[in-house]
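User: Sequence recovery, please. Input:
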């Protein structure tokens, strides 16, 4: 219920008296992908920012967070770039072993 009332995109359709029981989706998301994205934002806010009566967020109760997180910290989060590693040295294309010696003897 909290999701449906908290997000206008998730509200149920309204039937008006003069539309002969047709439903009107005035504020509904016509593209379901938009609703999925908005629900992801709502879920993140509710689990990490919204504090309950006990002073903890749902993420704190599960041990996923140490304290409530400010919405700005989530919105403007930029992960640290991964540590750069050098590529392994390129191998020589020259064959080695008994095949290499046989090809050299044929060339001479």
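Assistant: Recovered sequence (108 residues):
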């Amino acid at each position: 219920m909290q999701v449906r009332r908290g997000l206008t995109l998730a509200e149920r359709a309204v039937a008006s008296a003069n539309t002969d029981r047709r439903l009107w989706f005035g504020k509904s998301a016509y593209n379901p992908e938009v609703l999925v994205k908005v629900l992801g934002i709502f879920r993140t806010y509710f689990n990490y920012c919204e504090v309950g009566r006990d002073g903890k967020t749902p993420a704190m109760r599960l041990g996923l967070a140490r304290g409530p997180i400010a919405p700005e910290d989530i919105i403007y989060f930029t992960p640290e770039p991964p540590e750069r590693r050098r590529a392994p040295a390129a191998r020589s294309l020259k064959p080695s072993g008994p095949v290499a010696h046989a090809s050299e003897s044929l060339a001479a």
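The CA atoms of residues 77 and 97 lie 54 Å apart.
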